[in-house]
Structures are given as structure tokens and as C-alpha cells.
Specification:
Elements (H helix, E strand, L loop, with lengths): L2 H5 L4 H4 L6 H22 L7 H26 L3 H20 L3 H18 L2 H18 L4 H81 L5 H31 L6 H8 L5 E6 L7 H21 L5 E8 L2 E8 L16 H12 L3 E6 L4 E8 L1
Parallel strand pairs: 1-2
Antiparallel strand pairs: 2-3, 3-5, 4-5
Helix pairs in contact: 3-4, 3-6, 4-5, 5-6, 5-7, 6-7, 6-8, 7-8, 8-9, 10-11, 11-12
């Protein structure tokens, strides 16, 4: 046995009662109830007691129970001197019970102190405490030395076995926790690898295709601009310029999606400010900034894009207010407009458009909510998702 093992406490997993199985919990509570019943029975048998004596006995038993609970908590927090002090008070209570003739509660307290000291304290403190408790027990039960010696040896063995059993269970819980953490890390690594593979595939196919389209559309624009001016030429040029703009926006969104898959997502508020850079819009950010999950970040971005698209379609020229709020357990986005020349009635019912319906389904998959409907002036889209 190493010197450190004499001064080290049992592990927290060994001292804690939180990770026990249901059967162990039932056994533990049965033992506690049995010991309390035994103490009550031993206190009030063997004589006639008045109301005052009964009250004193009840208070004494309850005080011992509270001291035992306090000892378990102090030892769980590895506080040595408070633990030893509470143990000494329990031994004094046992001595007082013995002096008043309540020998059964005294024996229960001495034996309990001996076993728990050896089980829960460092060996350098637990062995002397056990020796004091069992020594006092042997001194007051000197009628039959053989039975006393056997009982003392059995209690020492029981305390040490309980200590070894608790340490074994604590080690098993630590190994289980480490294994679970390793599995979670392995799953996260596998998910990141898969997302990186998907990102590479998207980049090799979609991003390259969009880039090639931009090149061809730009070449087409230059060729069309060389042609003589005319109504047909201007219409074709307008279509090509619009297609080039859409391809550029699609390429930008593809790159953002690739960054999200690789875990390289820019802050949401930066994205929102870039999104409304050319719009009559204001972005307000409230709450303490923190990094969001990739799913929550993408949902906020897509809802903001869809809401702005609806404003352009149904309320052109309207002022837009985007409010992003970091909540303790999630993120909230509200996009409201002041109304415009376009009809608002097309979106008067919450979730009436397919775009908003898709965003609502995306929010619900994350355990969030999306509400859309007319506001005080125009239309309001409210999103809330956990993050």
C-alpha cells in the first residue's frame, strides 16, 4: 500500500449515491429505515417513560440522524475536520445513550461510526476513528469477549469491504463515462468527416458548375453589348445580367453552405448585416453573443433570407427591421417590415407561402417555432430555436 493511499479520499464516484442502481437504492433505504426503527425501539423499551422522556428520546434519535446526514455530506466534499467532528459527536451521543440505559442505540451508533469511518474517510483518519469506536464498544460490552471480538473483527472487515466495493463501482462509473465521451468524440469526428466529404462533393460539382456559368454568362454579356442597340438586344442583355446575378448569389450561398458543413460559419449578425447591405433595413442584436450550432445558425440565415425575399415580393420599398436576440437557451429572430406598395394580403395567413412553410418545418426539426403574420404596419416573421 502506497503512502498516498493512506491520505487520499475515496473517489467522488465511490462516495456519491447518485449513480447507484435501483436495487442498491432500495437496499440502502431499507437499511436506514431499519436502523432508525431499531434505535427508536431500543430507546423506548425496557421501562416506563413519561411525555418529557419520550420527547427527549425522539429528539435524540432525530439529532443523531441529522448528524449522520451531515457527516455523509462533509465526507462527500472531502472536508476532513468537519467529518471527524461530526463523527466524534455521534460517538459522544452513543456514550450518552449507553449511560442512560439505551444500549441498543449506543451499539448501533458505535458500529455505524466504525463502518462508515473506514468506508468514507482517508485510511490515516478512518482507521483511528474505527479503532476508537470499536474500542469503546468493546469496553462497554465486556461480558462476552469472544462475541465482542468476533463482532469487532466483522465490522472492520465489513467497513473495508464496503470501501473496496465503493471504489470498484466508482472506477467502473469513471470508465463508463470515459467510454461514453470517447464514443461521442468518435461520432462527432465521423460526422465531421462525412460533412467534409459532402462539402468536397458539393464544391467539386455545384460550385464549379456555378463558376463556369458565371464565366459563360459574363462572356455572353460582353458579346451582346457589342451588338447594335435595339429592343430585342436590350431584353436579352437584361435577362443575361439577371441570370449572372442569380448565379453569383447562388455561388455565394453555396460557399456559405460549404463553410457551415466544415464548421467555418461566420457570426450570424455579420451575415445579416451583409444580407441587408443594399436594403433599407436595420439590424439590431441583443443579448450576449455566443457561438451557435451549425443547424441553428443555418436556420436563422435561411429564415432571414426568405423573409427579405417576401418583403421584396409583397412590400417593395418597405423599411425592414431585423432583430436578433441571444437567449439563455436559444436564439430568436424577428423580421418586420413597415408595409409597401405591394399587397400584404397574400401573406396574411401565417405560413401561407411554401418558403415560410419550409422554414417552419426546418425550425420544428430543431425543436423551435416559426410564426408569420401581419404586424402593426406590415408583416412579421418570428423565429425561435434552441441553440
Amino acid at each position: 500500500m502506497t503512502p498516498a493511499s493512506w491520505t487520499s479520499w475515496p473517489s467522488r464516484e465511490a462516495l456519491s449515491r447518485d449513480r447507484r442502481t435501483r436495487s442498491r437504492i432500495v437496499i440502502a433505504w431499507s437499511v436506514r429505515v431499519g436502523l432508525l426503527t431499531l434505535m427508536f425501539w431500543g430507546t423506548f423499551t425496557g421501562g416506563t417513560f413519561g411525555p418529557w422522556e419520550i420527547a427527549v428520546g425522539l429528539l435524540g434519535v432525530l439529532a443523531c440522524a441529522l448528524l449522520a446526514v451531515a457527516f455523509f455530506r462533509a465526507s462527500l466534499e472531502n472536508r476532513l475536520w468537519p467529518s471527524l467532528g461530526l463523527l466524534a459527536l455521534l460517538m459522544l451521543a452513543a456514550l450518552g445513550a449507553q449511560q442512560t440505559g439505551a444500549s441498543v442505540p449506543a451499539v448501533v451508533l458505535w458500529c455505524g461510526c466504525a463502518v462508515t469511518a473506514l468506508e468514507r474517510l482517508p485510511l490515516a483518519a478512518g482507521i483511528p476513528s474505527t479503532a476508537v469506536a470499536l474500542g469503546t464498544y468493546a469496553a462497554v460490552n465486556s461480558d462476552n469477549w469472544v462475541n465482542t471480538a468476533v463482532t469487532t473483527a466483522g465490522l472492520c472487515l465489513a467497513g473495508y469491504v464496503l470501501r473496496l466495493d465503493a471504489e470498484a463501482r466508482g472506477s467502473a462509473h469513471r470508465l463508463l463515462a470515459q467510454e461514453r465521451a470517447a464514443r461521442v468524440a468518435e461520432a462527432e469526428t465521423a460526422a465531421l468527416d462525412e460533412r467534409s466529404r459532402i462539402a468536397r462533393e458539393i464544391h467539386d460539382v455545384l460550385a464549379h458548375s456555378l463558376s463556369a456559368q458565371l464565366v459563360h454568362l459574363e462572356a455572353a454579356r460582353l458579346l451582346i453589348e457589342r451588338e447594335p442597340a435595339g429592343e430585342f438586344r436590350d431584353q436579352v442583355l437584361q435577362r443575361v445580367v439577371a441570370a449572372r446575378s442569380m448565379a453569383r448569389e447562388g455561388l455565394a450561398e453555396t460557399r456559405q453552405a460549404l463553410s457551415a458543413l466544415r464548421g467555418e460559419v461566420s457570426p450570424v449578425e455579420d451575415f445579416l448585416r451583409q444580407l441587408v447591405a443594399a436594403e433599407p433595413a436595420e439590424v439590431r442584436v441583443e443579448g450576449e453573443h455566443r457561438t451557435l450550432t451549425a443547424e441553428a445558425s443555418q436556420t436563422v440565415r435561411r429564415v432571414a433570407q426568405e423573409a427579405l425575399t417576401n418583403v421584396r415580393k409583397h412590400a417593395p420599398g418597405a423599411r425592414v427591421l431585423i432583430r436578433l436576440e441571444y437567449l439563455p437557451d436559444g436564439i430568436a429572430l424577428e423580421v418586420s417590415d413597415s408595409g409597401g406598395r405591394g399587397p400584404v394580403g397574400d401573406l396574411a395567413v401565417s405560413g401561407s407561402g411554401y418558403g415560410l412553410l419550409g422554414m417552419r418545418e426546418r425550425a420544428e426539426l430543431l425543436g423551435g417555432t416559426l410564426e408569420a403574420g401581419p404586424g402593426e404596419e406590415g408583416f412579421v416573421v418570428s423565429l425561435r430555436v434552441p441553440a
